[in-house]
Amino acid sequence: MTVSRILTVALVVLLLASGMWWVKANGFLNDTAPVITDEAAGWPSGSGQRHIFLDIAAVGDTLIAVGESGQIWRSSDAGESWQSVDSGVSGLLTAVSAASGKELWAVGHRGTVLFSDDAGLNWQQRPPGGLESPDFVALDVAFGSEGHGYIVGADGFLIVTSDGGETWSRQTLPNRYRPSDLNAVAVTPAGRALVVSSEGNVYRQGDDGDDWEALGQVSYRSLNGILILSGGDKWLVYGEGGQIYESADAGANWQQVKSVSKAPYFAGRVLTDGSVVLGGGSGVVVKRTPSGEQFHLDSAQAHGTILAVHERADGNLVVAGEQGLGWSDGMDYRFEGDEYGATGRKRVQQRLDGWLTRQLLAWNNERRSYYSDNEPRIKQWVRATLAPAEHREASHGVFTTGVYQDIRTEIKSLEEGEAGLQVYSLWSPGVYIQKMQSGAGRTLRFPVDMTDDEYDDAERMALVRRVKQAGLDGGLVGPGLATTSFFVTQPQSGEGESGNALPQLATGLFAQPGEERSFSVQGLWSQRLEQVVDATPEEGSADTPASEANEFHGREDFLYTVTRGEQAYGCEEQEVAARTPELEQKLTTLDGVVKTLTVAEQAKGSRAMAKNAHWKWFTADAPSGYQRSEYGEWADYSCVKTLAIVYGAPGSSNIAVALQAEVDEWLSGSGLAWGPGDLEVHAYRLTTAPSVADQDQNF
Question: Do the domain assignments include residue 537?
């Protein structure tokens, strides 16, 4: 070993040893080491809600929001706070409408029709009887006066009631070709219903209530909503590609309205003063004044798609969409739970793209040979969390100009150093913003970090928006943008070995004197993920680790995958993806389980993509074509491979046996071609310890 090498190693050891006081003082010893249920393992921290919401209705001062997985939430303070109520269903709810008094109707997939007569406190299923297809997909519901109501849906589905929902009858629109999806319905002050379709058509109910008139194909793109403006004969429709059209003569003629956005519009509202507001993709909100001719971009923008808007008494908006439920204060949009970082679908996407998820899916998709089936899988890495140094002015957290540049340079040096380290961070090519793009049949992805060496205030503001659009706050970027984290590992040098990234990482993080750094090290942990080979230990016995060699001590937590066994016959991809929420619900109630993530979450966006990227199709059980790519890394070369990832509760022991029993019980009554034993539970141990160098370690 050369003299320079000896001096370098000595410096690393000395600095790490002298840094022990900092680690102890900041609570990073084993008793407080981060576990897999918090952001230190790449998951969002806190308790922000995870669902999308598609519609909002008001009964007096009470707001009702409906959305994903049968969610119904209720607010009695104009959206300042929300409480979940039991809907009794688990499918996607697409729309909710107030009828009369305290009556509300909600509709959705799987033929779901719900009714409440107490302002949304309690709900009961009210399926319309006598229908040929009870499993229809309902996309919207509206009620007028005197008990007249309308439900529209997929493939030209239209039913009407004239007695407040006691009885319903099927009606048919004058479709020239095949029936299109009916995306929205509205009722004029005169009591006539209007319907818009996925093929850009507008329909008007006849005077007798039975016949419908086609007013023509207003747009060649999907129309998602319709608003009744002043006087009742002035209408506005909106939809895909930022298209807005207006008629001043009850639909006889239409003119396209200028808009500043090409994002699809999904939500609209006529405000008390006559202004019109529309919300849509990428958090776009546009407004038009009562006397205006053009829509203008609202200065306040959300970071996820807006799917419903409602006006508060103070003139601000309550909104629902990709980020869940939120409100505008005139300057910005806030969402329920965003004090913890990402909310709504972005919270789920953060988990889907997370470090642990990537490791587990990659392992489960490996095609292993007869000789390697029982070989251990082991992965080690170091996780670092950095923040602005206390002596530096950092009003913008880690995105403060100097701090951001220094951290970016540090990570780049780790990646380009002689050790060949691999870094997963905000700057990695695999960290991207994901947007649904209608018409193209694909999801748009582009890197979050697109900066060059120039980084000024304008680029900082753009980067912060990209971070929030990607849902990274609360994960790779800490809540409040105060910290950033990254994972450092080495390419595997052999089966069961992952090398040791600690010395190289420590050299970069501790080489400079503290007063010269623009950032400080808030946390430095070593983590080791290993498969437990004996996933079904006998009662009272210790489970067998993947490798007895290379001992690694620290806090232990367990996580599990539910995967298709090699002997499982057939794929049944779409049915399996649709049914995994049932399995998720079953496993989540088991003692020792804190979180689950299923292939259904991966499939939802693909289902919506197949329907003009319309979020009312954001469900795993929606009709879909033969698209294996929609399952991403959850599928191997032929079929869905991994159905679920299960995260154990902090400090719990290995519960693989109990999980396998629950999975087999579910298979027994699932109606799938698979039976008990065709799905296998694999157990993994995650060991987390503070990264403090062992002075006896050979660097």
Answer: yes
Residue ending a domain, choose from 336, 371, 393: 336
- Residue-level pLDDT at 498: 45
Question: Which value, to the nearest 10 degrees, does the dihedral of the CA atoms of residues 16, 20, 23, 26 take?
Answer: -140
373 and 508 in a common domain? yes
Residue 66 near residue 93, CB atoms below 8 Å: yes
Whether residue 374 sits in one domain with residue 312: no
Residue 327 within a domain: yes
In a domain, 557, yes or no: yes
Q: What is the pLDDT averaged over residues 608-636?
A: 81
DSSP strands (E only) in 274-431:
276-280, 285-288, 296-297, 306-311, 317-321, 324-328, 333-335, 378-388, 422-424
Q: Which residue has the tokens 């109707």?
A: 105
Residues 300 and 383 in one domain: no
In sequence order, the 6+-apart residues with CB closer than 8 A to the CB of 248 are 233, 234
* Per-residue pLDDT tens digits for 390-426: 766 667 899 998 899 889 888 888 888 777 788 999 9
Task: Tell whether the torsion through CA atoms of 538, 356, 51 and 435 is positive or negative.
Answer: negative
- Whether residues 310 and 361 share a domain: the answer is no
Burial class (CB in 10 A: 0-12, 13-18, 19+), 156: middle
CA–CA separation, 45 and 389 (whole Å): 23
Token code pair at residue 638: 């032929």
pLDDT attached to residue 43: 42
Domain span at 325: 258-336
* CATH number for 302: 2.40.10.500
Question: Which residues, listed in sequence order, are joined to residue 644 by a DSSP beta bridge?
Answer: 562, 598
- Among residues 287, 316, 336, the one where a domain terminates is 336
Q: Same domain for 332 and 387? A: no
Per-residue confidence (pLDDT) for residue 576, from 0 to 100: 85
Whether residues 517 and 578 share a domain: the answer is yes
> How many whole angstroms separate alpha carbon 425 and alpha carbon 335?
25
Residue 298 sits in the same domain as residue 359: no
Measured CA to CA, the distance from residue 523 to residue 693 in angstroms comes to 14
DSSP category for residue 207: T
Burial class (CB in 10 A: 0-12, 13-18, 19+), 510: buried
**If DSSP codes are grouped into helix, strand and coil, which group holds residue 684?**
strand
Residue 4 lies in a domain: no
Note whether 593 and 283 are within 8 A (CB).
no
**Structural domain total, the chain:** 2
- 508 confidence band (pLDDT: 50, 70, 90): low
The 3-class secondary structure across 389-448, one letter per residue, is: CCCCCCCCHHHCHHHHHHHHHHHHHHHHCCCCCEEECCCCCCCEEEEEECCCCEEEEEEC
238 phi, psi to nearest 5 deg: -150, 160
Instruction: Return d(Cα 52, Cα 661) in angstroms, integer.
Output: 32
Please tell me the distance from the alpha carbon of residue 243 to that of residue 447, in angstroms, as a whole number. 28
Q: How far apart are CA 238 and CA 480, in angstroms?
A: 35
Beta bridge partners of 150: 142, 160
pLDDT digits (tens, 9 = 90+) for 49-83: 789 999 999 998 899 999 999 999 999 998 888 99
Q: Within this chain, do residues 291 and 356 fall inside the same structural domain, yes or no?
A: no
- The predicted-structure confidence for 324-347, as pLDDT tens digits, reads as follows 999 998 788 999 888 888 899 998
- On whether the CB atoms of residues 77 and 63 are closer than 8 A, the answer is no
